[in-house]
Design brief:
24 strands; alpha+beta; globular; ten-stranded antiparallel sheet
């Protein structure tokens, strides 16, 4: 029997004064229902607000919502629904007022329904101004709100929202979760996540509760996924100097999330891709995202930028403090290497990316990574202690408020003689990346100086640098030094470099060995045994490269390597399993009786019940095997209606490429009438494009 669950949410909200301080929304109670079959939401909302001075219109942001029974002070009033706002213009008086209304919506974004049955998940993504697609709220980040949320849903699911879980009660098949927030926040940080999860709880040194969630099938991945979480939290409280303000912190992975993570107050959502085992940790660690989203609880959630041009106060700070957390975990060399790589990206981008930090249209690279470098430069110039004190003062002064760049810089001016206006001109208002200043700071690191020295070896003959290579590979230097050697070896004939390669393979460092797997164009006969040891490395990416290359180069040993890798699965996109199925199907005379099963398994991974990263991997491999397979083309078209823009882009590019062939154009044209309306519309648009 197909079940349709209805979700009852009760939001009790206290709102601070709006941007125009003529009205102050004090509280709101919202009783909401989610229909997971119809992907819709409806409910009754009661607001208490105070009118402080005469005003013409009160506005609540509400995208494509239907409203009924609107009353102010228990009397029905006229209103205007623009499709973007609920506008109220009568019935209220100076002082305290009560507003009630019923609303319904079928959001096209922000509230997402993923998968079905036990794997069903419902989650939100409200940044930048999108919460108003599912909850009447305020797009203006300056409107700070306290949300207290009670949610009733089927007891077999976990229901999570912002704040402390004050109470949970169970009645028959339903349960009610009641969450309370201690302080106000902007509406874009309101979150909801529903799914089947297992939970573990830990406590920080200061006593804050940490909650970690994973899907029931991922319980063995708790430790590697959340490795260092407590250390990061304790480090931030000490480094920032301001106690975590929200009482509880939880992290919840969701399927097909739009980004790496989102810093919803008290309750970060992050991509399922980062749920890994101990080997996957080496390939796709959550540590940086973990630290970045936690840093936002101070920089963004507690203190929020007044407008888009000050967005670096959130993203630049979160990026920088995540790097500081990684330095605490992995050491100075790791930290400086990250700063160097960021600088390389910024230098390369500066040729075309000409919008400065203090511009709402700046790129993510600018807001995040140039913002982080600006802060590192600032700390270097004013000194660690002064920087730390200024940040602490800034946070305490503006906690639960909105800020701009000048207000942050003013806190530096109070305790330092540093020229913040020149800093602002050079780093924040200029699009030029301050390469000279950056190199001066990087060169303070002995490791970075050593790396620059290794980089300069590329200009020397192999004989001139062979001894240096040997010395470095035998040493305990940080892995980029050894990795750089491997990259420099690419153009050297194998017979000359084989001793160095063998020495590098003995290093035990998976990054160095992976560099060999990536750069070795062909596998020499006398290097096969060493190369096969890559199959045992603690990296699913290394194993994928090695399997693919070895299978391709030695047809006579294909069955050997297929048997060796038969039970591999890999990361969340099943990179090893999908590759193995592809190679098994492409290997003549290999398990002929099982090939139909292998094809069915590979095709199954292309279905909408799976996450898009796995589906994309499977579809890519199926197209490699047979571009005329109409089973594959059907799932490729379905990808056009995914909520993940990355998957949609993949599908569009592949469909467009296939449409260059008249055979495929006919396949797609014949398919049109059998498709659901949404898929039909998307495919038809591509068919109508000019050839």
């Amino acid at each position: 029997m197909k079940l349709s669950f209805y979700l009852l949410l009760v939001f009790s909200v206290s709102l601070s004064a709006q941007n125009v301080p003529k009205v102050d929304f004090v509280s709101a109670i919202s009783e909401l229902r989610i229909n997971s079959d119809q992907k819709s939401i409806a409910g009754k909302v009661t607001y208490i607000f105070e009118v402080k001075s005469a005003m013409d219109t009160i506005k609540i942001d509400a995208i494509n919502m239907d409203f009924q029974n609107i009353k102010i002070n228990n009397k029905k009033v006229n209103f205007k629904n623009s499709g973007k706002e609920l506008q109220l213009f009568e019935g209220y008086k100076k002082g305290k007022n009560k507003l009630t209304f019923d609303y319904a919506a079928t959001p096209k974004q922000t509230l997402y329904f993923v998968s079905e049955g036990d794997g069903k998940q419902i989650w939100t993504q409200g940044q930048g101004k999108y919460t108003s697609h599912w909850l009447p709220s305020f797009d203006d980040e300056n409107e700070k709100v306290i949300f207290n949320t009670s949610i009733t849903f089927h007891k077999d699911f976990q229901v999570i929202s912002n704040g402390v879980l004050a109470q949970k009660s169970v009645k028959d098949s339903m349960a009610t979760w009641s969450y309370k927030m201690p302080h106000p926040m902007s509406s874009y940080l309101v979150m909801l996540a529903i799914g089947k999860y297992e939970k573990k709880t830990d406590f920080t040194q200061s006593g804050t509760s940490l909650e970690f969630y994973v899907a029931p099938e991922d319980t063995r991945k708790f430790e590697p996924t959340y490795r260092y979480s407590k250390q990061i939290f304790d480090f931030f409280e000490k480094e920032i100097g301001v106690k975590y303000p929200w009482k509880i912190y939880r992290q919840i992975p969701v399927k097909d999330f739009l980004y790496a993570g989102m810093e919803n107050t008290t309750s970060t959502l992050f991509a399922q891709d980062f749920v890994v085992d101990s080997i996957g940790f080496n390939d796709r660690t959550y540590v940086n995202v973990n630290a970045h989203e936690l840093a936002h609880q101070w920089f963004g959630d507690m203190v929020t930028a007044k407008a888009g041009q000050h967005h670096w106060l959130q993203e630049g700070f979160a990026t920088y403090y995540a790097l500081l957390a990684e330095k605490d975990i992995f050491g100075e060399d790791y930290f400086n290497w990250e700063l160097y790589e960021i600088a390389e990206r910024l230098i390369a981008a500066s040729k075309s990316d000409t919008i400065p930090i203090l511009n709402s249209k700046a790129s993510s690279l600018t807001f995040y990574q140039k913002g982080a470098w600006a802060l590192h430069y600032l700390q270097d110039k004013i000194g660690y202690k002064v920087f730390q004190q200024a940040v602490k003062n800034y946070l305490l002064k503006y906690q639960f408020k909105n800020v701009d760049t000048d207000e942050f810089l003013a806190e530096i001016d109070k305790i330092s003689d540093f020229d913040t206006q020149k800093f602002k001109r050079d780093w924040l208002e200029s699009a030029v990346f301050q390469t000279e200043d950056v190199l001066a700071i990087l060169n303070k690191s002995p490791f970075i100086r050593a790396y620059f020295e290794v980089s300069e070896l590329k200009e020397m003959t192999f004989e001139q640098k062979k001894l240096t290579y040997t010395h470095l590979l035998k040493g305990n230097g940080f892995y980029p030094l050894k990795e750089e050697i491997i990259y420099q070896l690419q153009s050297i004939p194998y017979e000359e470099k084989k001793e160095i390669l063998r020495l590098a393979m003995q290093s035990g460092d998976f990054k160095t060995r992976q560099a060999i797997a990536k750069t070795l164009k062909t596998i020499p006969e006398d290097f096969k045994s060493e190369y096969l040891t890559l199959f045992e490395d603690s990296s699913y990416i290394t194993r994928e490269i090695a399997l693919n290359k070895y299978w391709s180069e030695f047809p006579e040993e294909r069955i050997l390597v297929l048997e060796k890798s038969k039970n591999w699965v890999g990361l969340n996109d099943k990179n090893l399993r999908v590759l193995w199925l592809t190679l098994a199907l492409a290997t003549p005379n290999y398990e002929l009786e099982n090939k139909p099963h292998y094809y069915d398994e590979l095709l199954d991974y292309a279905k909408p019940v799976y996450e898009s990263n796995l589906r994309q991997n499977a579809i890519s491999k199926l197209l490699f095997l047979d571009k005329n397979d109409q089973n594959t083309l059907k799932y490729l078209v379905n990808a056009l209606v995914s909520h993940r823009w990355q998957f949609v882009k993949f599908a569009r590019e592949n469909v467009r490429n296939l449409l260059k062939s008249e055979i495929h154009r006919k396949f797609f044209q014949d398919m049109l009438e059998q498709l659901p309306e949404a898929e039909k519309n998307q495919l038809n648009r591509l068919l109508q494009e000019k050839k």
